[in-house]
Amino acid sequence: MLTLLSMFYYICLRRRSRSGTRGEALTSRRAVESGQRAVLPVSVVVEQYAMEVLDFSSHYGSENSMSYTMWNLAGIPNVYPSSGDFTQTAVFRAYGKWWEQCASAPLAFRRTPDGFYSQDYIELGFEKPVYPTAVEVFETYYPGAIVQILACSHNPFSQRPPTDVRWEVLWSGKPTKALTPQSRRFSPKIKHINFPTNLLRLEVNSSLLEYYTELDAVILRGVKERPMLALYKMPLIDISDLSDSEDEMPDGGGPFRPGGDGKQQRTANGYFDKLPYELIQLILSHLTLPDLCRLAQTCKLLHQHCCDPLQYTQLSLQPYWAQLSDASLGHLQSRCTLLQRLNLSWTGSRGALTLTGFSSFMKARGLSLVCLELSCCHFLNEPCLEVIAQACPKLQELNLSSCDRLHPRAFTHISKLSLLRRLVLYRTKIEQTAILSILTFCPEIRHLNLGSCVRIEDYDVVASMLATRCRSLCSLDLWRCRNLTDRGLAELVTGCRTLEELDLGWCPTLQSSTGCFQQLARSLPRLRKLFLTANRTVCDSDIEELAAGCPALQHLDILGTRLVSAASLKKLLQSCPRLVLLDVSFCSQVDTRAVQELSSLFPGVAIKKSFTQ
């Protein structure tokens, strides 16, 4: 079976490769045989640090500070060659695999390519466009997260609107885990490209790391003169080349028989079409989207199978963010009549997707959608959200994480999606009126992320509304909310007793002396994840109450508290056998020796204690 598919795939490639001229092919052959690239004489290498951070998917820091934010990557190193946890570095929001194992984590999409590892990204602008010869990244804590470095043809500081934007991968690799958390200068061998660039994109995957990776600076080295790249590149078939025309397609790849004139003749589809339809569908379900599109152009039989709507009930276009356009969505539209889950995260930047193309697709295929991932989609505007609200009445999951360019008024349309169960608004400009309207009309919400939503004026009012309208809430992320008090928290935990995840990290207005954390522990027996990061008032009595009231606890972050002792942590570890992650970094009463003793007594628990040196 795989042999037949391989044969059709080969036929497809041969047909498509004819777009290259004979002269180009001969040039390519000579270049390959010589094993060399013709280049101009060596010119002066320009070395420059990043001038500006242009875009990113997440960061540990807040929106109105510099500590642990991506903006620290601009300019010269702040920390290197020192190693450790420093506030002057760029830190992404998550690390490790535990983040993906939480109840709030979305289901993975099928057909994700094996080589796509990226979880976060950052885009950097440099002063002078150059032809890159090297890229160097200063990693100062737990290195190894970088999995891809890309260059863009567009000058981000140009006044002209972007046209024909191209992205080229300079280097890619698998996620790794460095032997030590010490700092290093990461400079992989990069591919030469045929356009100058002053826009780089770093993509990372921190799933193998034991703690947050920290980046300090990025250097771009390159030359101003264009190298002569003699190697001919065979045209690639991508998801934009999806013609559904069956003209000139062979019927299939079956055996031959002698004809009446003595010549060989093809006999329909041989034995391939004798296979059950469902079996062929199962085989094709293992192909990535570009492979499925290529195979559709080989013969009429496989075209029929590759265009079957059952192959497109789930569609993740995030791995192809650099190629996706309005035309791509238009070509896919006819195949997606049964589409239920769609991932457009990271797509559409710099004019690649427009309101017209997005709206056309959503109006045609939004009726059956239950999940829509739109993280970091900067093409979105208020009319786009209005279309979503009108065209997707069955939508249950909506992710607008880091869509920080959406106008606050746009979020009011979300309240029309009354079946919503999961809503991610991390790093958006949503305001209090909009979130209260959403909670009023969407009582089925189970998972809500309001992390770093700095425009919400009074989180106590939001907490009260959650307790009243969303009593089945399972997870709530209030990371870095600045004004939640003990009164709001008390209402929340009283009304939402099914909470399993609660992130109150960097919420400075919560004080242990009010008894709010002890009431939390007594009210939430199902609690599995609790972040009290950087709350310096958490004390032993809070930890002991958690040990008594939350036996299902798996993840606890109390970074920065000064009042918790190793003795209370030992009680917690004894009472919570499912605990796998405990962050006690910068806890002044829990030194390295205490951490080592606890780790030896409870080897199944990852006890985190960061350092600086």
Automatic annotation (TrEMBL):
Biased composition (Gly residues): 251-262
GO biological process: SCF-dependent proteasomal ubiquitin-dependent protein catabolic process
GO cellular component: SCF ubiquitin ligase complex
InterPro entries: F-box-like_dom_sf (IPR036047), F-box_dom (IPR001810), FBXL15_LRR (IPR057207), Leu-rich_rpt_Cys-con_subtyp (IPR006553), LRR_dom_sf (IPR032675)
CDD domains: F-box_FBXL4 (cd22117)
This protein's record includes keyword Cell membrane: no
Region annotation Disordered: where it falls in the sequence: 243-267
Keywords recorded for this protein, A-Z: Leucine-rich repeat, Ubl conjugation pathway
Residues of the F-box domain: 269-315
Protein name: F-box and leucine-rich repeat protein 4
Organism of provenance: Xiphophorus couchianus
